[in-house]
Structures are given as C-alpha cells and as structure tokens.
Amino acid sequence: MPALDCVDIEVDGGIVALTGASGSGKSTALRVFNGLVPHFYGGTVRGRASVLGMDVLSHPTRELARSVGFLFQDPELQAVYATVDRDVAFGLENLGVPRDAMVERVHDALERAGIGALAGRAVNTLSGGERQRLALAGVLALEPRLLVLDEPLSQLDADGAVSLMQTVSDVAARDTTVVIAEHRLEHVLPRADRVLFIDRGRIGATAPPPPHLEPFPVRRTAVATVGAGHWSLRDVTAGIGQAVVADVNLDGGGDVVVLMGPNGGGKTTLLRTLAGLISPLSGSVERPPGRVAYLPQNPTSLLHRPTVRSEIEWTLQHSPGGANANVDAALHAFGLQHVAELYPRDLSTGERQRAALGAVLVGGPALALLDEPTRGMDAPARHILVNAIHQLRAAGGSVVMATHDHELATAVGDRIVQVKDGVVRVVPAVERVPA
Amino acid sequence: MNPRALCAWSFAALTVALATSNPIYRALVLLCALDVLVVFRRRGTHIRGLLLAVAIAGVVALAITVLFSHTGTHVLLRVPDAIPALGGPITVEAFVFGATTALGIAAAIIAGAALSIVVEPHELIDALPGVLARSGAALGTALNLIPGVGRSAVEIRDAQRMRGWRPARVRDWPDIAVPVVLTAIESSMTLAESMEARGYGSTARTHFSVSTWRPADTIVTVSALAAAGIFVALRVIGVVGDWYPFPTVTVPPVNVLAACCCFALAAPLFAWRR
User: Fold this and answer.
1) Closest CA to A44 of A24, A28, A22
2) What is the pLDDT of residue A388?
3) Average of per-residue pLDDT values in chain A
4) Could you count the other beta carbons within 10 Å of the beta carbon of residue B206?
5) At A264, phi and psi to the nearest 5?
6) pLDDT at A221 over 70
7) At a CB cut-off of 8 Å and minimum separation 6, what does B11 contact?
8) What pLDDT sits at residue A88?
9) Edge-to-edge, what's the strand order for the sheet holding A256-260?
10) Which positions in chain B touch A301 (Cβ < 8 Å)?
11) Do A86 and B205 touch (CB under 8 A)?
12) Cβ <8 Å between A81 and B207
C-alpha cells in the first residue's frame, strides 16, 4: 500500500498547515519537498515533484538543501557539533560558503531564531525549546525559500511552542513559504493561511474538525475506596547523590495526583523514588501491594518485541497474576487491535505511543506513575491515555503523573501538587487556572 | 592552546615512554605528563577515574610479572612447584621488572589520555587535516550520540524493570540490549536525515572554526618533537638502551642529554598559560 496515493499539492507562499491522523502520510509528503523521499528512504515514486523549478526526483537532497530547509521533531537529534554557533555553521560549511560570509549568516540566523544570546553555549546545556530554536537557526542560516517543519512543537512545553510558532510566523512574513505538520493544532491553525488534510495517503476535500480541539472527557467520581492503591511518602529526601527534593510528605489512594512545576524541580525524582527505582536518602516510601506501572519520558524506546501483541503479553507474563488477563481486551482499550500483529517499531509515531502505553499500563496496576505522558503525543493517543487513567481510577488504582499539560491536569487530576526547587506544595483548588 | 600542538606533545611523550624500558626515563615522562594533565585539564573533568584505571593496570602488570616470571637471583619466597605456571621462585628482580612495566604503562596511558582530558573531543576533530574534515563531522556526530545512548540505556533498563523484568539468566539481557540498540539506530537515522537535509555530503566544503596558533604552540610542538627525535636518535646510536633487572638489580644508567629530553616534555607548563 503506498504511503501517498495520487497526491496533488501546490504551495506558493504563506503558512500551509498539513493535518491528518498519525500514519496518514504527512511525514512522507513533507519529505518529498526536499527529496528525502526517495533519495534517503528509497521506495518508488510516480508523478512529478518540483521545488523552485528544480525537479526533486533528479536533484539530491544536499542540493535541494540550498532552497528547502527542514526542521525535524526531536530537538535532541539535530545538532551535529557541540557548540551553538559551530552547529549553525554546519549547513553553511557543507554548501561551501566562504568563512567571512559564514560568520555573518550564523549571527543573523541566531538572531532570527531568537537565540542570539546563546551563540557560544554548549549544545548540551540547552533546554528542549532552545535546542529546537538552534535547529531552526541551522536551517535559517541556509536562507531557504521553503521551510518544512515536521511536528516541530511536539517535544516542547506550552511556552516553547508559542514562541517557536511566533518565530516561524516572522520567517513566513519575510518571503519564505512554510509548510508545517503538527498535531498541536491550537498553536498552528490560528497562524495558518491554508490547511490541507491528508487521510490515508490522499488529500481530503474538507478537513473534519480536529479531535484535539474537543475537550477531554472529565469524569469525576468520588474516590473509590480509601486504602485501595494507597501510597505515601513520609519525610522523604531524595536525589542521586545529593538531595533534589527535601522533606516531602505526600500520600494518595484511588486518586490522580498531578505533579506540576518547572523542569529540574524534582518531579521525575519524586516519581522514580515512588517507583522504587531510586532509594530515598531519608524518609520512607510506601507502595500498594500489586504491580506498580511506570511510563518513562520516551516510552517508545522500550519496545522490543516482534509484535504489538507480544509486547503486551511480555508485560503480563512478567507481572504476578497477569497471565490470565485478556490480551485482546487490552489491545482494544489502547486502540491497537488493527496493528496487533505488526512490528511495533514500524508503526507511525502515534501508534507506537499507544503500543508503549498499552505495554506499560496493561493488567490494571495498583499504582501508575507517568512522566510527561502527553509529550509528543497525537490527539488519539491523548484520548486513549485519558480514558486509561479514568479506568484505572475507577478500578481503585492510583495515578501519580508529572506533566506540563494543563489540559490533561484539569481533565484527570484530583489534586495538583506544585514541585519547585525541591519543595512540594499542594495547590488549593482556587488557584487552579485552566491553561 | 592549539589541539594540534597538544597532539604533537602527546605523540612525543608516548614515543619517549615506549622507546626504552629504563625506569628512570619512564618515571620522568610520567611525571611531566601527569603535571600537564593536572594543570591543563578542562574545567569539570575528573581525573580520579583515570588515575584509578592507571593504578589498576599497573598493579595487574606487576602481579603478572611477579607471579609468572620466576627469574632473578634474590628469592623472596617459593611457590610450590605442584601449582602449574605459578609454581617457582618469586624474586626481587621480578618485582622490580614488574614495577618498570607498570611505569611504562602508566606513562603511556597518561600521555595519551591528555588528549581527551585537556581538549574537547570536538576540538581534536576540528584539528584534523582538511581531507579528513568530512569523516571528522561524522565522528563528531557519533560522539554527540554517545551520552544519549548511555541515558537511554538507563531509561530502558528502568522501564523494563517496572514491567517486571528481573535479570536471572544471560537470556534475559536481550530485553534491554535489543531496545537500546534499536533506539540508537533510530536516533542515528534521524540524525543522518537531518544532516542530509542540511547539505551534508556536498563537494565543496568550507570551515567555520579557525584554530589560532600562538608562539607558545610552536614552542611546545618544536620542543616536544625535538625531544622525541633526539631521544630516539640516542636510542638508535646506543647511548640509551633497554634496561633489565636480571639476573640481579643494578642502578639504571642515566644519560644527561636523554634526561633533558624527558624534561623538555614539561614545556607546556611554561609555554601555555592557564
């Protein structure tokens, strides 16, 4: 089955948003613009594609790079060199730009990407948002006429997403055409001049209302049974080597606790302590009897079985009493029935996320610990996650999750706990302001 | 300091350390190299691990020589002959020879390690000659991936453990190794794709970073290479030779010029400023 089927796209100026479900062919379409399809990925292409008068099929990507900039999803995997200005220069070096011109263009690109102040910094000291701007600067330095962005916001927090989109708008205003695929449509649609919808490899006539813009179902019932799934942290000080969080007293049972606060504040340390992955430096941790599930920050990296079904079965085989669980019901609950027999790493990003969710949350854990569960998630995966959390809670399980996602926190959270500078504070209900 | 000058110094120190088995020269090289390492190490680097590794390598070399050589006149104790290989006399001479070997290993490791402790790996790659620049970019990228692979290995181990994984047999380890390797391959593919999209592989290539070469770098390079050259020459004409503590330990002979060559390896301490 072709990834794209008789697609006709003509782009000429402005910001064009490409929407569609995970696995619909958006990524493939984007990669035709700079020839990564077919030059990098291989495969067969029929039809014609041209950019600025150049035939994509007969020009290699490295030549198209002069005119077409491409920004990828993962901020961590786009830097080639260890310092910011050096990395921005990488593309210019490849194109043989003389050194004197290079210095000026690197400077301009950093300014346009809004990170002029970071020029001499080491790349590994940057935040995710800064790294994505660095990648953007590396692309802008080539002064492309067409800028293609593949899910550029998915790994960013709300502030990072807003400011990156502002920069992209500024770029578009300066005679550069922008094509962007992104599932966080709330950031993109207000700025888009045109919206194209791709459905199973074909351009749809009219886009259906994006599911993401529908609010999550909020189902709040009284906390099931006191004592079920009960967990507690008593006077806990934790960290690796040195304390990241100090004197934490927190407990829960049958409810959903949301940890919010800035990066580096101690959210992940608290989750890992509660999971038993690190021992507290002092204080005591109590976990409920039964399985404790833990969703790490990059959950799709844990996939390792030949099929999605065996991925789910593997977790059940390794958990006490899991052998009797109904695998088909679990596959259905996570929307995986149609990909059950496929290799998980061949799936689209959204399907992989659901497979990882299923692999971690299957079998009704007594306590589920989720670290930034919606980071990089598309709309269907988010809905499945919200439903899974509601179900866990209804069955008497407890959930503790760290997130920046206000929408998710409002939809599922019973209590919001602010974790900042290693100090934990329960946020009173009146302070909760929806994002 | 210029990474190329450091490379020249490191090469010279290695040459001298390996050119003779005379422990006096080896000790002098070790001393100079250790000084350079301690004085010029990058901020934030720790050399405790390196020193520990050197100590372990030294002790292992010493133990092997002492336990297996069985030559020399001054016998400390005798291991019963019934024990295969180990059986035989343990001598003062074997001990001294083992220590000499350990000195050589330590001097060589420290001289080589200076490259990674004193300058960033990326500075070294940038210092590669022009023809190798493209391989250098690929190498630099690979280096960038290494910390990520380490982090992802820890993450994956934790994640699988929380899914109930308990390593009991060797057969269980693929449950960690397979996803770590797959994730690393996927990361490399993504990075390769983004490099391609930024024009990597074009024919004409220019360079952004120009490393500065100061007079101090000339002093370090010339003195280090001259020292190594003279030392090797002395070795060739027989003024400097190998030294063995067999059959009995003697005081190793020292040639003044050769010793000066070793001291010249301390030139960075005077030429470069920190």
Assistant:
1) A28
2) 93
3) 88
4) 16
5) 80, 5
6) no
7) B224, B225, B228
8) 96
9) A292-295, A367-371, A398-402, A256-260, A415-420, A423-427
10) 152, 155-156, 159, 179, 183
11) no
12) no
Q: What CATH number was assigned to the domain covering residues A15-211? A: 3.40.50.300
pLDDT tops 60 at residue A226: no
**pLDDT beyond 70 at A430:** no
User: Over 70: is that where the pLDDT of A212 sits?
Assistant: no
Burial of A354 (0-12, 13-18, 19+ CB in 10 A): buried
Separation in Å, CA of B142 to nearest CA in chain A: 9
Question: Distance between CA B27 and CA B17 in Å, rounded?
Answer: 9
Q: How far apart are the first and last CA of chain A?
A: 41
Q: Taking 50 as the threshold, does the pLDDT of residue A435 lie above it?
A: no
First-to-final CA distance of chain B: 9
Contact yes or no for B199 and A80 at CB 8 A: no
CA distance B1 to B120: 12
CB contact under 8 A, B200 and A90: yes
> Distance from A159 to chain B by nearest Cα, in Å?
25
Percent of chain A at pLDDT > 90 equals 60
The CATH class for the domain spanning A231-431 reads alpha beta
The pLDDT-based confidence of A218 (bands split at 50, 70, 90) is low
Query: How far away is chain B from the Cα of A144, in angstroms, using its nearest Cα?
Result: 11
For residues A232-269, one letter each, b for 16 or more C-beta atoms within 10 angstroms of the residue's C-beta and e for the rest, the string is bbeebbbbeeebbbbebebebbbbbbbbbbeeebbbbb
Helices (H), A125-215: 128-140, 158-173, 185-188
- Tabulate helix, strand, coil % of chain B (nearest 5): 70, 5, 30
Find, among A262, A297, A260, the residue nearest to A277 by Cα: A297
The ranges of chain B with pLDDT < 70 are 274
Query: How is chain B split into domains, by residue range?
Result: 3-126+213-271, 131-197
Q: What is the mean pLDDT of residues A250-263?
A: 91
